[in-house]
Amino acid sequence: xxxDHNMHILEHGGHGGHGGHDMPxxxxxxxxxxxxxxxxxxxxxxxxxxxxxxxxxxSFLAIVGLGVFYEYLRIFSRRFDQNLAQSLRAKGKAxxxxxxxxxxxxxxxxxxxxxxxxxxxxxxxxxxTPVPLIPRLTRAALYGATVFLSFFLMLVFMTYNxxxxxxxxxxxxxxxxxxxxxxxxxxxxxxxTNGKGMACH
Length: 201
Description:
Blueprint: H1 2-19, H2 53-90, H3 105-111, H4 133-157, H5 162-179, H6 185-190
Main location: membrane
Keywords: Copper, Copper transport, Ion transport, Membrane, Transmembrane, Transmembrane helix, Transport
Region (Disordered): 95-127
C-alpha cells in the first residue's frame, strides 16, 4: 500500500515538474537566406539570444560600435608601425634604403638570392629590421585583436540578417569617417595594400 502511495506521489511530482516547462521555450532561428528576423535571433553565440525589440536595438548599436572599434584598431596599428619605424630609424637600427640603380635584371639574378657558384643565400640585402621584443609583442597583440574582431564581424554578417548586416556596414563606414580624416598621399600612391578592409588581414 505504501509502495503504491509513493509511486502515486512520484508520478504526481513528475507531472508537476513538467508543469514548470509548459511555458513556450524559444529557440534560436537559424536562417541561411536573407531575412529580417528580430525576435529569437541569436548573434554568433547561443547566449546572445534576442528576446525583445529593445534587446535587438541594443545589439544593433553594439555591433555598430564593434565596427567603429575595428576601424580604430586598423588605424592605431598602422600608426604604431609608423612610430616604431621612425623610432628604429632615429636609433640607427633601420637603414635608409636608396632607390635601386641596377642596370639590368640579369645582373641582379646572378648576384641576389641563392648564389649559383657558392650555393649560399646572399646576405647583401637583409629582409627587414629586427623589432625589439616588447614592440613585437604589441604588434602581435594588435594584429591578433584585429583578426579576431574581423572574423567576429564576418560571423555576424553570416547571420544573413539585413539589420545586423546594416549594423556591420554602418559601423565600418562611421569608423572610416572618424579615423580616416587625413591621408598620406605618398603611402596611398606607393602602397597597394594601404586600403585593406575587413575582408583582408
